[in-house]
Design brief:
Oligomer: single chain
Distance between the termini: 65 Å
Shape: elongated
């Protein structure tokens, strides 16, 4: 029995297939590129300890 796994594109929420999709988990090259650009523009953040600022000296 062959099961086709589908998921929603994390960018545009369009249903897309997992198997044979070179852009997975995205539906297209465009959505993949737009998401990468969002990371580069610092639109996304990963929670963690605050980084020291440039003004902080080794006290």
């Amino acid at each position: 029995m062959l099961m086709i796994t589908t998921l929603k594109c994390p960018r545009c929420r369009t249903e897309t297939v997992w198997e044979g999709n070179p852009h997975r988990p995205f539906c297209s090259e465009r959505c993949k590129t737009v998401d990468l650009a969002a990371w580069a523009d610092e639109e996304y953040r990963i929670a963690g300890p605050e980084a020291p600022s440039d003004n902080d000296e080794n006290d």
